Amino acid sequence: GQQLNQSPQSMFIQEGEDVSMNCTSSSIFNTWLWYKQEPGEGPVLLIALYKAGELTSNGRLTAQFGITRKDSFLNISASIPSDVGIYFCAGRTGNQFYFGTGTSLTVIP
Amino acid sequence: EAGVAQSPRYKIIEKRQSVAFWCNPISGHATLYWYQQILGQGPKLLIQFQNNGVVDDSQLPKDRFSAERLKGVDSTLKIQPAKLEDSAVYLCASSLFDTLNTEAFFGQGTRLTVV
User: What is the pLDDT of residues A79-90, one digit of tens each?
Assistant: First the structure.
């Protein structure tokens, strides 16, 4: 299957700090998606990006679809304790989705 | 709108036993996916259905795993016999069959522990 590389693998930040994570692939995707997964739950969709260069916000979250269509980043501004979880990127080609390895976020109050 | 429903939430079985998971996708979603998520990793696709037909099962260990979606709505995933390395969360997801703006939505998953 397709390989999506996410970085960083984990982050420990102070409440109120901004967070940035990214995802890269050797393959081109038609859609980039960002999910958050909390312990014991399934991934929840945060943001979907459909066009190269697209910049989309959802509250404190901002994500961009890379111009090359091979990468995407997710920013979280002014982090709060409930942002804790694992964030996954996913790329879509056709009707198939491929997932990154995840970024584990810990927010220290 | 109701989300993707999965059951059971948790299952503990002994190795060599069999187990089955059930999934009901979002109403109207033609595509249904089963993913395996091992602790610390991202979801890995096991099988993808389009209505009641299999689109991709290249990653499904067919000697022990099987899945069906007979009426093109809900689906079951079975493992027989289970091995220790099958311990994982099994996630079901669904999506509209839309070539432009397609997103996958997940259920809460079934956590399987094989002892």
Answer: 999 999 999 999
Edge-first strand order for the sheet with B75-79 is: B5-7, B19-24, B75-79, B65-68
Q: Which two tokens stand for residue A68?
A: 């090359």
Q: How many CB atoms lie within 10 A of CB A84?
A: 15
Residues from chain A contacting residue B103 (CB–CB below 8 Å): 31, 33, 45, 48
- 3-state class (DSSP) for residue A83: helix
pLDDT in tens, B2-47: 899 999 999 999 999 999 999 999 999 999 999 999 998 999 999 9
Chain B residues closer than 8 Å to A40 by CB: 108, 111
Q: For residues B110 and B88, what is the distance between their CA atoms, to the nearest angstrom? A: 8
Tokens coding A93:
């080609």
